[in-house]
Amino acid sequence: MRLPRVPQRTTTGFAFSMVDRALKEGLSTRRFGQEEIARVVEFFGHDDKKPPECVYCGSLEVKRWDHLIAITMGGETVLGNMVLSCAHCDDSRRAMQFQKWMKSDAPKSPGSRGVEDLDHRIGSIEAYVRQSGYAPRTVEQRLSPSESERLNAINSRLATIRKDIEALVADYRERTTAT
Fold this sequence. Notes:
Blueprint: H1 12-26, E1 30-31, H2 34-43, E2 62-67, E3 77-78, E4 82-86, H3 87-93, H4 98-103, H5 118-132, H6 139-142, H7 145-176
Parallel strand pairs: 1-3
Antiparallel strand pairs: 2-4
C-alpha cells in the first residue's frame, strides 16, 4: 500500500510570495473571457479537426492557461499574454522567459524532452504576442504617483511583518526544538 506524502510546511516565504502575487494581480488588467479564448484557439489553428495542444511542447494534455509573462513579473491576464499549456510545461517554466526556457535543459522543458520544432513554436508564440498588440507594463508603470507611494508603504509594512513572523517562528522553534 502506498501512502500519500506528508504535507509540506507552508513557509513564511511562500505565504508572502502569494501575498505579493495577489497584490500584483489586483493591480493589473484581467480581460480574458470567451472572446479572447476563442481568438487564442483560432490563432494557434485549433478547431474540430485539430484539438488544442500545449504551445510549448505540442502535448494534447492541455490542462492550464499560462501567462507568458508571469503575474509576479508584471504580466496581466489578457490576450497576448495567455497561452494553452500542459501541466509539465507550466510547472517547469515558472517565471522564466519562454524562449530561453523552451531551449534549456531545465527539467520538463521542451528542450530537455527532445521536442524538435522549438524554433517554429517560439516563432508562433512571438507572432501571437505581436498580433495581439500586448505590451507588458510593470506594476509601477500602471500606477499613478500617489498609488505608487501607497504601494511602497504597503511593501515596507509587509517586509516588517514578515521579519516579525520569521522571528516569532524562530523563537518558538528554538524554545521547543521543533523542526
